[in-house]
Amino acid sequence: MGVIQRQGVKSTLISYLGIALGAVNVLAVYPAMLAPEEIGLIRLLIDISILISTIALLGIPGSITKYFSYFSSDKKGLTEFLSLCIYASLMVFSITALLLYQFNDLILSSFKEKSSLLFEYKNYLYAFILIFILQDIFTAISKSYFRITIPKFLSDVFIRVGIVILITTYFWQKYSLDKFISIYLCIYLASLIILIVYTYRLSTELKLVASFSSIYNNPLLPESIKFSLFLALGAISSTIIIKIDTWMVSSILGLKTTGIYVIAAYIGTVIEIPRKAINLISYPVIAKHWQQNQINKIKEIYQKTSITPSITGFLFFTLIWINIDDLFNMIPNGHIYKAGKYVVLFIGLSKLIDTLMGANAEILITSKYYKYHLIFGLFLASLSVITNYLFIPTWGISGAAIASFISILIVNFMRYWVIKQKLGLHPMTFKTLQLLLIAIPIFFLSLILPNFEFPIVNIVYKSILVGILYISLVYFFKISEDVNSLIKRIIY
Fold it and tell me: pLDDT tens digits, residue range 369-420?
């Protein structure tokens, strides 16, 4: 896959390092050194900020990725386009901040009864929202230059290392929660500053200008604005689908239960790491292929972004589920967090579906049928709110995970149907069937493996046994050329 493969491999390796750090954070540091209520508060601040920042961004990052290649032929025009995007993002942040200040009690009213601690730290939302807005803008610019390694390093490694250090010092020095949240914010701010500096050094066209004469009469400008507004509604809907579970668990069940949910959900999301890494760099490449009308190239990317991440996705899902009880027995205060066992199952299944369906969102958003993304998003966002509202009171945090699974299953089916009907493309090949015939029997056979007294022994021997068998069969049947090439480089 050329640049996708190179940047995807680098990004995936960084993601795996991030997984290790995330595992240390979520499975050891968080449960041992923070109370569930504190974990819930941190996650809620982040998720509310992400949701509001997504609304405030108005689809600008997606517009940068899609139209970057169109403006890139004219350096002055590209400079003006990027400047306009940055100015617009700062303007909408200002409006968002004013609205949040005026209506924050109304916006956060659902948390008053069960998660009242949030109100003591609500002012931090403004800073987090600004950081996430600028982070998305500059990541989109970096991504448009096909450079995702540094942004991934900052989000997956830099921030997590900083958080490990912060929580450790917080636990031993016993300083106030106010100071803890302030330093937590500063870690994200430092990451943003590094990202901005890197992006400016990467791009000679990235400079703030006050004149927009080169693009003022360019027909692409109103087209990009229209695209951004449509994409904004889709992005808002997608973020609601992803983040509404934390919001509603906090408002219905409280911060302590949210903390339990966060730990369990993280374990399930490990499955999608390869998919996110590859799809991140696929987005601008797909946009460029649409510009050049290279439908066969898009088909190739669609199929490879399905099969390659699915290989690791099925392996991770199997290893996580066969070791889940031992995993909870090993983490600090595992008897508390074990309540999230079935959250891991349903979040894991939802991420597996996302992985199997490839870069369907990226293909749909960058095509002329991007309006379908908006329609599907609005429908699924509404469905997510309704299913969470119905399932959480009945099944607790497992209900939130089931609601997420249903929403992701349906949205992927809808995207698949439109891409198949309108573009004649589908992500699966005969190799997909071969992978399923390998992964599914191994999953069920691994469930009957015997357990020993010590959890660490169970985890190590099961993971090695299943991993060797699975990887050997994938390699032997040549499920993915990219994976086989990587295995050969490691072995030889």
Answer: 888 877 887 888 888 889 999 999 999 999 999 999 998 899 899 999 999 9
pLDDT reading at 38 higher than 80: yes
Tokens of 471: 């990887």
CA dihedral 104, 106, 112, 114 (to 10 degrees): -100
- Number of residues in the chain: 492
Query: Which range marks the domain in which residue 425 is found?
Result: 3-491
d(CA 150, CA 197): 11
**Percent of the chain predicted with pLDDT > 70:** 95
Q: Is the pLDDT of residue 335 over 50?
A: yes
Indicate the burial class of 447 (C-beta count within 10 angstroms; 0-12, 13-18, 19 or more).
Answer: exposed
Q: Which residues contact 180 (CB under 8 A, 6 or more apart)?
A: 166, 170
- Ramachandran bin of 367, using left for φ above 0, alpha for ψ from -120 to 50, beta for the remaining angles: beta
How far apart are the C-alpha atoms of 164 and 29, rounded to whole Å? 7
Interatomic CA distance for residues 161 and 163, integer angstroms: 5
How confident is the prediction for the chain on average, in pLDDT? 86
Distance CA 475, CA 488 (A): 9
| Structural contact between residues 388 and 254, judged by C-beta atoms closer than 8 angstroms | no
Split into its structural domains, the chain has a count of: 1
Percent above pLDDT 90 for the chain: 42
User: 218's torsion region: left (phi>0), alpha (psi -120 to 50) or beta?
Assistant: beta
Among 1-5, 304-308, 351-355, the minimum mean pLDDT is found in: 1-5
**Structure pTM?**
0.80
Structure tokens at 322: 């066969």
Compute CA distances 12 → 18, 74, 308, whole Å. 9, 33, 12
User: 1 pLDDT exceeds 50?
Assistant: no
